[in-house]
Each structure stands twice: as C-alpha cells, then as structure tokens.
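step: validate -> pass
step: tokenize input -> pass
step: predict -> running
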Amino acid sequence: MSCILLVEDDAMIASGLKYALEQEHFPVYHAANVADAIDCLENKKVDLAILDMQLPDGTGFDVSERLKGKGVATIFLTVVDDEENIVKAFERGADDYVIKPFRIRELIARVKRTLLKMEGDASDLLTLGQVQIDTTAGKVYANGQLVELTSLEYRLLLIFAENKGVLLSRTRILEKIWDIDGNFVEDNTLTVYVKRLREKLGDAINIETVRGMGYRVD
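step: predict -> pass
step: emit ->
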C-alpha cells in the first residue's frame, strides 16, 4: 500500500485527515513543520506528500524542493486561492492543488487518482508484500522504512521479487546468485542469507520454506 506524508500544522485538520486516510488503509506519516517533514523523507519511503502551504518554519515549497527526483507525488493544501501560487505550485511539479476548506471524500478521491497515475510511471519499483524495491536507486524499503542490505541479500530479494508466488528450488536460486567474482554460492550460504533477509525485513515479507523443495514468496 502506498505511503503518504501529511505535512500540516493544524492539529485538528491533520488528525481528521490522517484518520480518514488510514480508514482507506493508507499508512500515513504526519509532520507539523518543514524540519520534521524533511527528517521523515530521509528515513522513510513515501509515495505521495500532502503539503500545507503555510508552515511554522517555512512553506510547502520548501518540502517539495526536497522531493525532486524522488518519484514522490505532491498535493498542496492551502487557504491561498490566488492564480500566482497555483501556477507556481504546478510549475514546481505539483500533481494537484486543493483549497481549504475542503471535503475529505473529495481529497481522498484526488489522492487515489494521483496514486493511480503514478503507478503507470513506476516501472522501476518492485513490490513484494510490504517491501518496495527501487531498482533505479538500489534501495529497499520495508513498511516504509529504509533497510540496508548487502549486495548478495539485495540480489536474492530481487530473485524473489521477479518470481513472486513461484516455488523456487534451492538449485535454481543458487544458479541465479553467482557472487561478484563468479564463485558459486554454497547451499549453506543460501540458508544464511534467507535467514538474514527474514530478520531485516521482518513481517513486511513472508519467505515460505517448502520443505525439501525450496522457497516461495507471495
């Protein structure tokens, strides 16, 4: 499920919108200012940001600048209903611009529409359970949190992601996972790395062991 960053300093608006989005099963991270929003972006995987224009320590534009090149959609929320700011927002890559006060159901519909549009441009993202693999940046996120993997762990995860729901024999996996020097990975080593993936990714992924056959990840 797509993760949303909500940057809003009004506690009542933030609480109501966060609740409504979570009712639609969206994981939501809330930040009340620019500094907290930037900290969130540095540590979590976000698919869409809903940005209040006026914040205690800056503006929504300060946050949107940090989103450039990250593949994160943006929707601005603001009481400022003037053509100059609306044009400026779209020139900076905004996907939508919503004027306060707004209807919750309408905003959620806009969120869903924006995310659907993004899916058509997300060919460099692989999803496995609650794990997202950004193959362009070589980064892995579990439940929205950045996870550090070794190169072999990363390659093993890619094999699972490219064969979602497929029962992979240990032999087949071993054939695909030659190490960087061309040395064959031993069977015991595969067991160790599967264990490490489970530990690092936690409940974000289910690596099923099929006794006597291999592994399957749905």
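step: describe -> The helical segments are 11-23, 34-43, 60-65, 83-91, 104-119, 151-162, 170-176, 187-201.
step: cleanup -> pass
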